[in-house]
Give the backbone structure.
Amino acid sequence: MRREKFTKNPLRKNLLTGASLALISFILLLTPAAGRADVNPSSAEMAAGIESHLYQAGIYKHGHVDVSVRNGVATLTGTVDSYGEKLRALRAARHQHGVRTVMDNIVVNPEGIPPREVLNKARYDVLTYPFYTIFDHITLEAKGNRLIVGGQVTEPFKKSDLGSILANIRGVTFLQNNIQVLPTSFYDDHIREEIAESIYGDPMFAGYGDQANPPIHIVVDNGQVTLYGAVNSNVDREEAMIDARFAATYFGLKNDLRVVA
């Protein structure tokens, strides 16, 4: 039997293409606007989406935030118990598809928590931060319930981590993160190690090195060395200075150790 040669039919191809396009259009019509990337959701859909983000972020466990959206502008109004929760709420709103701008009307309510309690909690959180070492130094100051954190750390992630941890303390209404990230330097690393070995290897400081948070901190910034922390006597303060002086080659040495009774 003779086999007929198959030839493409242009009319058949056009009909198939037209049917495919019609099917795609029908599916798009059935798809809600909020689920389509080509169409911005309505204001009501955006508000509902933001509220869902806030719920997933746990914001409602720390306060109450009302959401309204108009012309792509989301307004958040309410109260939360920390500056960190406020920042999380604003980030959650910015992640909503279709939102162009977020207006911040959120107030942090310190709930009667005094500045002293905020400072004590901040000190505890710094000392228990697992990556805080004798080569870092953190300072804390409270102006009312506004917390200012300064000092030096050896890695950028430490500044970010500590900023986030401290901002989430209940009662902190604002956080100013002035922590300096020390430059990466093999030379500075060598100085740190040599001075640390000299001080904490001194039998006079055996009781210091055995502590969970050794109190003498060694900060090195481009060859400039500063000793921070607290010691028990002026004799210990001078001994630490002597140990550091002869431990390594550096450009400068400063003793900011405090004597505590």
Summary: The helical segments are 10-30, 43-56, 83-94, 115-127, 156-167, 186-200, 206-209, 234-245. The longest helix spans residues 10-30.
